[in-house]
Amino acid sequence: MTPARHFVPFACVERGGTPESYHFGVAVLADSSGRVQASWGDPDFVTFPRSALKPFQAVDLIESGAFDAFGLSGEQLALACASHAGEPFHADRVTAWLGQLGCDETCLACGPAWPGRTEALHAYLRAGLAPSPVLYNCSGKHCGFLTNARHLGFPLVGYEAPDNPLQRRYQHVLSRFLGGPADDLRWSRDDCVLPAPAMPTRDMAVAIARFTEEAASGPDAAASRILTAMGLHPLLVAGTGGLPQLLGEVLGSRIIAKTGAEGYLAVFLPAERLGLALKVSDGSAPARAVALVAILSQIGIIDVAEEARLTERLAPPHLDSRHRAVGAIRPILPAATA
Q: For the structural domain made of 3-331, what CATH number should be given?
């Protein structure tokens, strides 16, 4: 099967009312029993969720006892799940967390980065500062692994290696949510150097649904604490203008979304105890947002007014260099199949 046959139309970019480009993708909505309730494209398409797996990587931080032993906060838990923008409020919190562990930026296995938002980058350059691992979008997740290493008495060096005990513990957690051995997945390495698995889209959707099912078991469950922290601190999960913040402005904590690189998205639907996994074939972030709104409308999670408000925030008109509307991106999502 050629790659194009895995996907369905997601979004169309128009300029002056004429189509300019198209974006395609795949999405799966599933419940915790493993049943696919709706799908768009091939549910068995295999790809990397990348950072969309960060909530799963944070589970052992709580279940090991490290989170409570170090007296960590909900903000730190949100940072452990974050793909942040390296804004000052991100960097300050990561630096403070490292200090709490008796560490500095040299303990982070991820490489150095610049701030991800233009305003923060300009301020950083004006101050004559160099790129830092603290600013890498995954630095909060790495702090989580360092915290676990401290608590469990593991060496800090090498926590990113696939055969490190911390990564084995993560694989065990992931196996629980997948309902099968994570060792059987195809594993590679993420850009932040931690191990990264690829999996069928349906398997990720089921894992997300099982995460919401565990969250419903009570406020002390790791999954519940993680989703609560992500819902309360969307600015820490991504950054100013990020998808979590914009969704939260309209929907509050009704859905929790975690982005992954190359157009991936994990959507936790706690009230419905469902999971949605979504992938845009060309990695387009605007197409991902537009497709998400269309899917939420199609499955009845949002009403017409909420759809309009989300579209206004997530898919504003394209502007020319004089800030005049010249085009737009709109959803062209087909009806779901079960």
A: 3.40.710
